C-alpha cells in the first residue's frame, strides 16, 4: 500500500486489529459455554479472525497489541444463551471496524476488509437465526 494510503488506513487498520483481538478473546470464553457444534463454529471463527488479523497487520506494517491484553466482555457469559448473544454481538461490533478499513484503503487491503465485513455478518447471522439488517458501504 502506498505511504499516503497507509497513513489514511493506519488508524482504521489498528482499530480493526484491536477489535479482532477482542473478538478472539471473547470466543475463547464463549467456547466453554456452547455445544460441540458451537465449539466448532468458535474454532472456525478464531481461525478466520487470525488470518484477517495477519493480513491487516501486514498491510499496516507494524505489530498491534504486542503484549497480551485482557478484555471485558459486553455482558457476562453464564450459559449457552448468553454465550451465543456475545458471539453475535462481537461479530456485529467488528463490521463497522472492517467497513472503516474499506473506506480508508485500496487494493488488496480494501478487498480483504470487504470480505472480513461480509464474513462477520455471516457469522453474526449464524449465531442468531433472527434476520438482522446490516448496513455496509455498498448498501447504506
Automatic annotation (TrEMBL):
Instruction: Report the residue ranges that make up the DUF4439 domain in this protein.
Output: 12-131
Q: Which SUPFAM superfamilies match?
A: Ferritin-like
List compositional bias (Polar residues) regions by residue number: 127-140
Query: Could you tell me which residues belong to the region Disordered?
Result: 119-140
| Protein name, as recorded | Unannotated protein
Q: Give the species.
A: freshwater metagenome
Taxonomy of origin reads: unclassified sequences, metagenomes, ecological metagenomes
